[in-house]
Design a protein that fits this description.
Number of domains: 2
Low-confidence stretches: none
Shape: globular
CATH architecture of the largest domain: 2-Layer Sandwich
Radius of gyration: 20 Å
Mean pLDDT: 95
Structural class: alpha/beta
Number of strands: 15
CATH class of the largest domain: Alpha Beta
Length: 362
């Protein structure tokens, strides 16, 4: 599962098929980011059938085939998109390419499921919105720090059950290990990866919207920097932002590339959810110096304090719900408006960010 390497982190949930064999078939176009492993596994564990992977000449195709050895390698992109038996195209291509792949998938009559961040420009987002409105197909995004973390999944259940009352604030911390020598060239090119708030910030903004139940939100302030990596001038190694939702809830998050080598996992991701009747802390990937197994949830309410280890208990229901949404025309995994709003706010945070390592003066 590569817990020390976030780029190839591919957690597996419980296998819970939601469809009959062969009822939901998908192919992969874009293996440039290791998140494609977890995305593919999540769909397969939920009953999806992996048909083919496109050999685009980029990305770790060999690594993908090692994990899924029975997959057919397709050299002809036209053939992949023309296959009428495929309901979905899945992609973790280079971020700046994900929008175009999605447009091609929807034009071919297929749903699309891509890694975060789905867009690096506002034009890509608007084109996606138009394509979804025209076709009625789904453009899903894998915001994995919520949908592929069992503590985050359980927190959502508790919040929606009213365990901590009305949610007032969400604070997120998303540190990542850089592992610069193992990163591809595009990772350091801002036009290709989109910037740290567009990329890593996408997880945090989506969680803020989800836990607060926001239908809209504004970015109040955002900052970014390259504090410590002058050898990569287009890399941003720090970013943060403050947001406010339409229901009055606020959010703050920090993302960075400063995970020290001594940490046993790729990043000490944490989320704090404050409610009127209690609060929740998530220690997603490690409980530092205590437990290298992740998925720890801490709940404090009027009745007391609880530590709830949830690893291996709730799985990743997002994937099964996404399959059923595609088959049934429903919206249970993640509403389309929510998916696009998270992406839009990331782009806004990136565009409006104050560069604090150069000239922090207002």
């Amino acid at each position: 599962m590569a817990k020390a390497d976030g780029m190839n982190y591919a957690p597996r949930g419980k296998a819970e098929p939601v469809c009959k064999p062969g009822e939901f078939r998908f192919s992969v176009a874009g293996v440039d980011h290791g998140h494609i492993l977890g995305m593919t596994a999540g769909l397969m564990d939920s009953g999806g059938e992996l048909v083919a992977v496109l050999d685009s000449g980029t990305g770790d195709l060999d690594g993908f085939r090692r994990m899924f050895p029975s997959v057919r390698v397709e050299a002809d992109a036209e053939a992949l998109y023309a296959d009428s038996s495929i309901q979905m195209v899945v992609s973790a291509a280079i971020p700046s390419d994900r929008g175009a792949i999605g447009l091609r998938a929807l034009a071919a009559g297929k749903h699309y499921f891509c890694d975060k961040a789905p867009f690096t420009t506002r034009a890509q987002l608007e084109a996606a919105r138009e394509a979804v409105a025209h076709t009625g197909l789904k453009w899903a995004v894998c915001y994995s720090e919520r949908v592929q973390n069992e503590a985050a999944v359980r927190a959502g259940e508790l919040v929606h059950e009213g365990a901590i009352g009305r949610v007032l604030q969400v604070i997120g911390m998303g540190p990542h290990r850089l592992n610069a020598k193992s990163r591809p060239e595009w990772f350091f090119l801002k036009e290709r990866y989109g910037g740290i708030l567009t990329d890593l910030g996408s997880h945090q903004i989506e969680q803020f919207l989800y836990y607060t139940g926001a239908r809209s939100a504004r970015v109040l302030h955002s900052k970014l920097a390259n504090y410590h990596h002058p050898q990569y001038p287009e890399l941003e190694d720090f970013g943060d932002a403050t947001l406010i939702a339409d229901n009055g809830a606020t959010g703050y998050f920090r993302v960075d590339w400063f995970t020290p080598d001594g940490l046993s996992v790729w990043g000490d991701g944490r989320t704090f959810i404050l409610g009127t009747d209690g609060y929740i802390e998530l220690r997603k990937y490690v409980d530092v110096a205590r437990d290298t197994v992740g998925d720890h949830l801490y709940l404090v309410d009027h009745s007391g304090e609880q530590h709830i280890p949830v690893h291996g208990t709730v799985g990743f229901p997002f994937f099964g719900r996404l399959i059923r949404d595609c088959l049934d025309g429903t919206e249970h995994a993640m509403p389309q408006d929510h998916t696009f709003l998270a992406a839009e706010l990331c782009l806004t945070a990136q565009e409006e960010a104050l560069r604090i390592d150069e000239d922090p003066a207002p």
